[in-house]
Design brief:
Distance between the termini: 12 Å
Strand order of the largest sheet: 2-6-1-7-8
CATH class: Alpha Beta
Number of helices: 9
Strand content: 15-25%
Bound molecules: 2'-deoxycytidine-5'-monophosphate
Helix content: 40-55%
Number of domains: 1
Shape: globular
Radius of gyration: 17 Å
Order of helices and strands: EHEHHEEEHHEHEHHEH
Largest sheet: 5 strands, parallel
Structural class: alpha/beta
CATH topology: Rossmann fold
Number of strands: 8
Length: 219
């Protein structure tokens, strides 16, 4: 069984997806981590994330997979665990750029689908309900006011010891949103059969409750 959760940055997808996966005893698939891992290697290799040709060439000599250990996912690129290095501002910005490259998306598609075959999965990202798992029985699209999303992301950064000016967080989020929503391939849009949830005024637990209620009525 696949539960697809899509939505923009800062909407609370990861928190909610983790809670839901724990509650249902499912694997939690963070597809953003896969884009981030590609971006990590691109930066490591001294390639510009906007250089489509070089990025695509790099994929030919790249292996990427996720390992699940006691409910925790570890991203392995060329056999090395990079999970702890994927949340820096540099990787975040580069992930947004490489995710707009169609061949990168195609390359990651079978990797994501293979993880979906491992059992019941709560998968979160931008195109899970539309492209990665279009036949998922449960699809949710989370959204929230831009101001709320900026505040949430800012709090996360501060908690991770990476406090930056609120204005910088706003600029980063808006630029990523704009790219994710307008890219030609697999843009961020709700699947026609996704249930929309506005999380602006809801706690993560309340969002999970809404999801559980929606799934029980659909069962
Ligand atoms: O969810 P995240 O912030 O970790 O994602 C990092 C980047 O990867 C984000 O800018 C958009 C991209 N992404 C995507 O295009 N499709 C996905 N399914 C997941 C992430």
């Amino acid at each position: 069984m696949i539960i697809a959760i899509d939505g923009p940055a800062g909407v609370g997808k990861s928190t909610v997806a983790k809670l839901l996966a724990a509650r249902l005893g499912c694997l939690y698939l963070d597809t953003g981590a896969l884009y981030r891992a590609v971006a990590w290697k691109v930066l490591r290799s001294g390639i510009q994330p906007t250089d489509h040709e070089q990025v695509v060439k790099l994929l030919l000599s790249t292996s990427l997979h996720m390992e699940f250990n006691e409910g925790m996912a570890h991203v392995l690129i060329d056999g090395n665990s990079v999970t702890g290095e994927l949340r820096t501002p540099e990787v975040t910005a580069a992930a947004s750029l490489v995710s707009a490259i169609p061949r990168v998306r195609e390359w990651l598609l079978p990797i994501q689908r293979q993880i979906g075959e491992c059992g019941s999965v709560v998968a979160e990202g931008r195109d899970i309900g539309t492209r990665v798992f279009p036949t998922a029985p449960y699809k949710f699209f989370l959204d929230a006011d831009a101001t709320v999303r900026v505040e949430r992301r800012h709090r996360e950064l501060v908690a991770a010891g990476r406090g930056e000016a609120m204005e910088a967080t706003y600029q980063d989020l808006s630029a990523r949103d704009q790219r994710d929503r307008t890219r030609q391939i697999a843009p961020l849009i709700p699947a026609p059969d996704a249930r929309l949830i506005d999380t602006s005024l809801l706690s993560p637990e309340q969002v999970v409750e809404q999801m559980m209620a929606a799934m029980s009525t659909e069962l």
